[in-house]
Amino acid sequence: MNVAVGSMSNPEAWQGLAHFCEHMLFLGTASYPDEGDFESYIASNGGSNNAYTDSEETVYFFDVGAGALPGALARFSDFFAAPLFTESATAREVAAIESEHSKNIQSDGWRTEQLLRATRGVSGHPYNGSPHTCYHHGTEPTLDSRLWRCLPVADFDTWLACKPQGRTWLVCKPQVALSQLLTARADGSLLSLLKREGLGTAIEVGVEEQTRSFAVVTASLALTEAGLAAWPTAMGHLFSYLRLCREKGALAQLGFRYAEPSQPQAFVTATAASMPLYRPAAWLSGPSLLEGAGGPPTLRQLLGGMTPRAAMVEVCAKEVAPKAPLSEPIYGTRYGRLPIEMPLRATSADLAASWGIRYGRQPIEGEAYFLWRSPEFYTSARTAVTAELFAGMLAEVLQEATYEAAQAGLVAASGVSSDAFTVQLGGYDERLPALATLVASTVRSFEPTPAAFERKVDILRRQLRDAERRQPISLAGYRRGLALQPARFSNEQLAAAAGEEGVLREAQLEAFVAGNLRENEAAEMVRGVRAALPAAPLAAERLPIRRLRRLPPGGATRQFLAGNPEEPNGALEMYLQVGPDEGDDWLHLLLLSQMIDKAATPSAVYAELRTKQQLGYIVQCGSTEADGVRGLVFIVQSSVQPPPELEARLEAFLRLFRGTLLLTSDEELDTYRESLAAQMQDVDQRADGQASRLWAEVATRRYDFGRPWRSSKRMRRVTRDGLIGFYDKYIAAGGAGRCRLSTHVFSQRSPPKGPLRDDPLPDAFFPPTADGFGVDWAADRAVV
Predict the structure, then answer these.
(1) Do residues 606 and 627 touch, judged by C-beta distance below 8 A?
(2) pLDDT at 349 > cutoff 50
(3) Which stretches make up the Coenzyme PQQ synthesis protein F-like C-terminal lobe domain (predicted)?
(4) Is 629 helix (H, G, I), strand (E, B) or coil?
(5) Contact (Cβ atoms closer than 8 angstroms) between residue 197 and residue 229
(6) Predicted confidence (pLDDT) per residue in 677-729, tens digit
């Protein structure tokens, strides 16, 4: 449901009212007065739901098991016919909105957006933070052309952003062509020039359609330290390139005919958004297809507005602090202003389009994965950093080499994990072998240059430095990973090792090809890649082994301070370790996680801790797996209570939840079981999704390709007694198998009175996941 009223219709005295209204519609209606009725009904029938408030629209959406759709629609439609807006819910949701806002205060994205709104528009225009009671279409904010320096929370990337005034082109979509022009990675492109001169590492282009009458176009450059020092030169390159584009023109085309089906929730949400904008015949195709080959006239019009005179330029970096004396009132962002001056120069933009797709047969998506396992990865901080740098530099080279192929829907990427280096190819299967040949040739000739190496070292060091300034819930998960996975190294260890070089001396290659390819084509692809990056089978004792630390019965607590001194929130993460996938424990864990997270009010953890107790906006529960070991994770982020109190409240909730299990009716339990069983076997709806699922079985050396359907059958056999027995053993306080690791992250504004706890953990590990190659999984038993 797309309601054509959003935040720009907020009364001046009631900022956030549209967002608040969005929240309130979920909390009881005339026909379904219980606050949690809709959430519970959707969750118990295998679905999910959400909503968002935009400038001119508020969108509500859900998905649900097909048989439950009539009941979901009845509850959903009552949102808009008869919401209750009860006094008790109103008071709580005001606090919830404030909590949601507080988690964004230290986010650079939110801070930058608000700075632009507050400093660029005509007084009284809804865009600049002082909206009228009713927004009138057709009015556009006047752009205040100047340069701003602002002080970010993080220090990962220095973004130099130019935000000219624009408008929406629904049919021609000139922004698509603009994005392709500016983000081109081939030789002669803007990005190639910035990298060659050591000024920048990435370019992003965005079109933020604020209303149906105007949009903001953003071109952002990620600068190196040298680029920050010479930012006028980098900015000059950008505007020179834009001038060249205005002189030469450009075209763009997107494929629509062979698009794979979207997930139902994404499909209905996108279609609802397009219905007010396109004629009915174009509700599906309108957002994707370009008419008029990209619309050269509108593209020229768009480019015509992207000049230094029309731009607002922002330099965002820690180094600008001495020149940022002003403060934005809502987020407290420090900033300053000065005139724009920059050198302009001509650049070369010779972009080829030689990768065409022939439609002699219907193309489908093909995927090819190549994995080199090596015992050298992550044996030390030095080798871990070396692997990251190698993968990053190769990915950059592959981007440039395959840019033209990417314009035809063919992509190549590389990455690294704790035990392997991977290359992934994807796109229309007809040209996938040709892409593999190009990638193999690129890998074979790849020789990192000193400039590329230093640039990647600079990026990695800033990434690691900024990692400590993430939100508290993210830091809690990171600390849990360090505690449980011995192959991981801290950000400090990795940063200290950055800059040291190394080589990959031994590796075993595994490959997986999926799609409409013949066996000989797949084999040829593998041979080409194998020749480019030699590999040989490793002896059993040389294969890398990933193990997870086994927690002792009882509990351990570790405490940390948030890295950002301005962060108002603290966080609790409680991890209850269960163990490997043995018997029905994994099924019990999934079922219990679903019930705790989505049970009817007030039994769900979200409803109790977030809605009723108002501890914070982020309250979640979910199952997790690492290196074959399962567990249950609770996270709560709060600015109103410290982590130890959050844990006490969570433990109190868990004590009461056993009663919820006992009182759950057979009908309710069956609904949960059936919902999860249906979700388990609802896989492989898209070719890329199927390839990803199958590849995960290869990468983890499990090779159990039929697991979803067997798990679905087993889920339907789970009993109440089995579920309660699992709860008593692994979840209940004092349970014989309860193994808890609690991670507390305190706000520096509210640190603990005593020293931070750092309970020791034993050097005991689960055995590595067994190699499932050759196991007769179809028989549901381990017979080799």
Answers:
(1) no
(2) no
(3) 603-695
(4) strand
(5) no
(6) 998 988 888 888 899 999 999 988 888 999 899 999 999 999 999 999 999 99
> What mean pLDDT do residues 148-169 have?
49
For residue 277, give every residue at least 6 positions away whose Cβ sits within 8 Å of its Cβ, in sequence order, or none: 170, 212, 286
Instruction: Give the 3-state secondary structure of 475-505.
Output: HHHHHHHHHHCCCCCCHHHHHHHCCCCCCCC
> Which of 355-369, 549-563, 580-594 has the lowest average pLDDT?
355-369
pLDDT score at 429: 75
Average of pLDDT values for 78-91? 93
DSSP-derived secondary structure for 138-190: T--PPP---EEEE--S--S-EEEEE--EE---TTT-HHHHHHHHHT--STTSH
Pairing type for strands 554-561 and 739-746 reads parallel
Is residue 365 within 8 Å of residue 687, measured between CB atoms? yes
Tokens representing 149? 């320096």
Please state which of the ranges 238-252, 310-324, 569-583 shows the lowest mean pLDDT: 238-252
- Per the rule left: phi > 0, alpha: psi between -120 and 50, beta: everything else, 111 is alpha
Q: Which CATH class is domain 110-254+290-338?
A: alpha beta
Instruction: Reply yes or no on whether the pLDDT at 779 is more than 70.
Output: no
The CATH number of 2-102 is: 3.30.830.10
Q: In which band, very low, low, confident or very high, does the pLDDT at 750 lie, cut at 50, 70 and 90?
A: very high
Q: Are 443 and 370 spatial neighbours (Cβ–Cβ below 8 Å)?
A: no
CB atoms within 10 A of CB 13: 7
Q: Is 124 exposed, middle or buried (CB count within 10 Å of its CB: 0-12, 13-18, 19+)?
A: exposed
Residue type, 461: R
pTM: 0.72
Number of C-beta neighbours around residue 400 at 10 A: 16
For the chain, what's the residue count? 784
Q: Vertex 350, ends 346 and 354: CA angle to 5°?
A: 170
* Residue spans per domain, the chain: 2-102, 110-254+290-338, 365-542, 554-779
CATH architecture of 554-779: 2-Layer Sandwich (3.30)
Which amino acid is residue 318, in one-letter code?
A: K
Q: Are 716 and 677 in contact (CB under 8 A)?
A: yes
Band (pLDDT 50/70/90 cuts) for residue 159 is very low
CATH architecture of 365-542: 2-Layer Sandwich (3.30)
Looking at residue 382, its pLDDT comes to 82
At residue 257, the pLDDT reads 57
Angle, to 10 degrees, between the axis of helix 37-44 and the axis of helix 585-598? 160
What gap in Å lies between CA 428 and CA 673, rounded to an integer? 38
Across 173-186, average pLDDT: 76
Mean pLDDT of 384-395: 83
Looking at residue 352, what is its pLDDT?
A: 27
Q: Any residues with CB less than 8 A from the CB of 8 and at least 6 apart, and which?
A: 55, 56, 126, 127, 131, 135, 210, 211
Q: Is 42 helix (H, G, I), strand (E, B) or coil?
A: helix
Residue pLDDT, tens place only, 632-682: 999 999 999 999 999 999 999 999 999 989 988 888 899 899 989 998 988
**Considering only CA atoms, which of 397, 408, 502 is closest in space to residue 441?**
397
Coil/strand/helix, residue 552: coil
DSSP 501-529: -------EEEEEEESS--HHHHHHHHHHH
**Cβ distance 574 to 730 under 8 Å?**
no
Question: CA-CA distance, 456 to 454, in Å (whole number)?
Answer: 5
